Every structure is written in structure tokens, then in C-alpha cells.
Amino acid sequence: MKRLTLTITLTIWTVSLYAQSSTPSQIDSLSNILVGVWEIEKTIDKEGNEVESITRETKNSPLGNEIRIKATGPKMTLNQDGSYELQFTPENTGKGNWFLESSTSLILQLVTKKGTISYNMLKSAAEMFGKTLKFDKDGNIVENNKREITKLESDELLIRYETDYYQVYKKKK
After folding, report:
1. b or e along 111-129 (b: 16 or more beta carbons within 10 Å of the residue's beta carbon)?
2. DSSP state of 139
3. pLDDT over 50 at 87, yes or no
4. Could you read off the pLDDT of 29-81 as tens digits, one per residue?
5. Between these two residues, 35 and 2, which has the higher pLDDT value?
6. Which CATH architecture has domain 22-43+72-171?
7. How far apart, in Å, are the Cα atoms of 138 and each of 45, 100, 114, 163?
8. Residue 44 buriedness (CB in 10 A; 0-12 / 13-18 / 19+)
9. Dist CA 153 CA 147 (whole Å)
10. Domain segments of the chain: what residues?
């Protein structure tokens, strides 16, 4: 009888553990933590060692089979109204909408405004290469970029970068 009770208890515990998913209240709570200005502190590897650059594979590129890129990231502002801004440089800023798909999945939805040069270039390229674009209700091009959150605290955020690296962000006070 004890074995049966133990087996049933372990089964229920295991099923409940794996069946857990993010509830709307958990998502709201995490979203509130994410609102603010996040500045990149460093990029680390799986062992936690800081890296200055990473190697990215570039098949069939005139630059060769791989390139080394500086391991950094943009300043990220996530606003309460669901808008975001990624500032790579003072002259290069991406804007769009953000939301949490789950407790570990941040979606940054890049919005390219209808009628802009970028819009026209993206639309032409998509037609040329037979790609399908997504549009919002106003006809703007939208692209969802998923970021995997591996750690979130009130003042620290880790996002998976490439495959083997993590961007460490600190919340600006």
C-alpha cells in the first residue's frame, strides 16, 4: 500500500511539475519587472566567462566561412505601453512593440512604417526572393524576434545570444 501511495504521489507531482505553464498573472508580474531601461553590461559564455567577440558562421559569403563580431548589444528600453526601443548607436535605433509570450520568451516586434525607404526596400526584397511578410492593421511590416530569457531579477536580465552565449543586462536606476 505504501508503494502504491508513493507511486501515485510521485506521478502526480511529476505531472504537475511538467504541466506548469506561465499564468497570465505570472506574465503580468514579469512584464512589470521588465519595464525600464536595460543597459548591456557584458556577454558571457556557458561557463560564465566574459567574451569580447564571437565567431559567426557565414556560409557562401564573400567574407569567408566565418566572421568575428564584437559581442555586445543595444541599450533596451521596454515601456509600460508595450513599445520598445533598441539603441545600437545614437544614430541607429530600432522601435516596435514588445510582449512576453511565456515566462522565458520575450517577443520584440519590429515595426517598419509603411511608406518609408526601409519599408519599400523590405517589400521589394521579399517580392524578389519570394518571401512572405507580415503586416499590422495599418499596413506596416512587422517582424517578431524571439529572445530567450534565461534569468530575470529586478535589476539583472540574461538573454541567450547566438547559441552558446548570454547577454547580461543591468537595469538603469
Report:
1. bbeeeeeebeebeeeeeee
2. S
3. yes
4. 999 999 999 999 999 999 999 999 988 887 777 777 888 888 888 999 999 99
5. 35
6. Beta Barrel (2.40)
7. 41, 22, 8, 35
8. middle
9. 16
10. 22-43+72-171
Q: Are strands 141-152 and 105-112 parallel, antiparallel or unpaired?
A: antiparallel
Which pLDDT belongs to residue 2?
47
Residue 34: helix, strand or coil by DSSP?
Answer: helix
* Global confidence as pTM: 0.75
Type of residue found at 52: E
SS3 assignment for 62-114: CCEEEEEEECCCCEEEECCCCEEEEEEECCEEEEEEEEEEECCEEEEEEEECC
Among 59, 46, 17, residue whose Cα is nearest residue 166: 46
Which three cell numbers, joined as nine digits, stand for 88? 545600437
- SS3 category, 57: strand
Among all chains, which residue has been given the C-alpha cell 516586434?
109
Average pLDDT of the chain to the nearest whole number: 86
Tell me what percent of the residues of the chain surpass a pLDDT of 90: 64
